[in-house]
Amino acid sequence: MTRHLTSLCLFCGSSVGDDPLYAEAADALGREMAAAGVQLVYGGGHVGLMGTAAEAVMGGGGRVVGFIPEHLTRLEAAFQGATELHVVENMHVRKHAMFQRSDAFVVFPGGFGTLDETFEILTWRQLGIHNKPVILADIGGYWQPLLALVDHMIEHRFARPANRDLFTVVERVERILPTIEEELGRAGVGTVAADADERL
């Protein structure tokens, strides 16, 4: 069965970073998602790249679903203008909820929190819990050091060469949605293990 992208999870920074390119890319993705009718699922904040993308989706008439832990509602300024805003118990509940509501994942520049979300979703894919597309948006070459680290782990046999296939690197915003659609068109991509909830 061919799957289509209807809901995309964005992992990204609660800061805008040091280059306007990052926020411009987040805004562009948000506008493209709204135009394509793709719902944004994200961490629920109204700051940094998170807020930029959410505002762009809402501004374009799209849907935004946010999940934010109660202890972060002040720190990350929960986006009250979201279509749905869910205040959840903790970080794990947040990540699980975002996973359940998304067809695919895209990773924008960010810090430790972004890496936490990214490596968890990649680990779940590696373990066969899901086979949803994961896109690493290498905006301005931001993720090159991370890609070098992955190669380093493979070189020293702490990761397998096949681990590189757990994600797809995309450098241009306009290629993100088409790349996900292409991946969802492949057999088996977009699926979730029947016992996924029991294994998480």
From TrEMBL:
GO terms for biological process: cytokinin biosynthetic process. InterPro entries: LOG (IPR005269), LOG_fam (IPR031100). It is an enzyme of class 3 (hydrolase). Its EC number is 3.2.2.n1. It holds the Pfam family Lysine_decarbox. One of its GO terms (cellular component) is cytosol. It catalyses: AMP + H2O = D-ribose 5-phosphate + adenine. Keywords: Cytokinin biosynthesis, Hydrolase. Signal peptide: none annotated. Gene3D superfamilies: 3.40.50.450. One of its GO terms (molecular function) is AMP nucleosidase activity. NCBIfam families: Rossman fold protein, TIGR00730 family. Belongs to the LOG family. This is Cytokinin riboside 5'-monophosphate phosphoribohydrolase.
